[in-house]
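Predict the 3D structure for this chain.
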Amino acid sequence: MAFIREITPEDATPEVRALYDRDSETLGYVANYTKVFAHRPEVYAAWARLIGAIRSGMDTRRYELVALTAAARCFFSKTLDAVGATPDDAFHGLADRLRDVLTFGHPFGEPA
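Done. Predicted structure below.
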């Protein structure tokens, strides 16, 4: 059961319908984040401008690496902290630079 009421295509304003149509044409479906932003299309437009500004300064490969690193960092700070996990040999076997990026601002202790 959804916690956020979905705006159906039949109930969508022309602006929201355009968002849905764009997703359907490019992705083959309407993305969940588009359904959430449908409640505030002006916020979606601002978010799209922000993403565009961020992407304009880097190539696709770098953008994907930044997004992946941010997702991994989120995992490290939320999930691992929540369960009280500590670094294992696999983590310490990562390249120094990757470990630094994954733990930026929240370093983990040495292995037991």
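The two ends are 43 Å apart (CA to CA).
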